[in-house]
Amino acid sequence: MNEISCPAERLRAWMAANHVQGDHLSFAESCHSVAEAAAAAGISPEDLVKSICMIADNGMLLVAIVKGEDRASARRLGQAAGCPMPRLATPTEMLAATGYPCGGTPPFGFAARFFIDERVFDREIVYGGGGTATTLVRIAPRELQRLNGATVARIRK
Fold first, then answer.
1. Is the predicted pLDDT of residue 1 greater than 50, yes or no?
2. Could you say which of 15, 37, 42, 110 would form a disulfide bridge with 20 (CB–CB 3.0 to 4.6 Å)?
3. Which Pfam families does its entry note (predicted)?
4. Any idea which fold 7-153 has?
């Protein structure tokens, strides 16, 4: 089977294969930052989630999913993961570990330990990275948790 090289196409294929209850959205405008994504999608920053990739001391990829206006706490993520405080992954490490670029990393679809901040569940629908800087996914937080098997904890600063 041929590997799909475009990150957005690869994510769409993963979503179809895993029967994701959500939408993959493409925009002409950049969605790299929270402000850009909110403007492109016509939503508020509070509707967005970010996938913050960190590396544990054993090399495991940890993904902190927090609301767009929040910042992930490495200390709290480490506590939730039961490991010493992880460090932020570099863009190169993120691409190597997830297959997706920084600024487009989706909140599911690759191997990692996922953690969702409890405030994400304040919204019925959230928008997260869609695989590229011009794509987003629209999904319910419970579906997001089902897909990535995330632990729910307070991981924001």
1. no
2. 15
3. tRNA_edit
4. YbaK protein (3.90.960)
Higher pLDDT, 85 or 1: 85
Could you give the CA distance from residue 150 to residue 135 in angstroms, rounded to a whole number?
22
Please say whether the beta carbons of 4 and 103 come within 8 A. Answer: no
Write the single-letter amino acid at 121. Answer: F
pTM summary value: 0.94
**Structural domain boundaries in the chain:** 7-153
Tens-digit pLDDT profile for residues 108-146: 999 999 999 999 999 999 999 999 999 999 999 999 999
User: What does the DSSP assignment read for the chain?
Assistant: -PPP-SHHHHHHHHHHHTT-SEEEEE-SS--SSHHHHHHHHT--GGGBEEEEEEE-TTS-EEEEEEETT--B-HHHHHHHHTSSPPEEPPHHHHHHHHSS-TTT--SSSSSSEEEEEGGGGGSSSEEEE-SSTTEEEEE-HHHHHHHHTPEEE--B-
Residue of 69, 79, 137 lying closest to 108 (CA atoms): 137
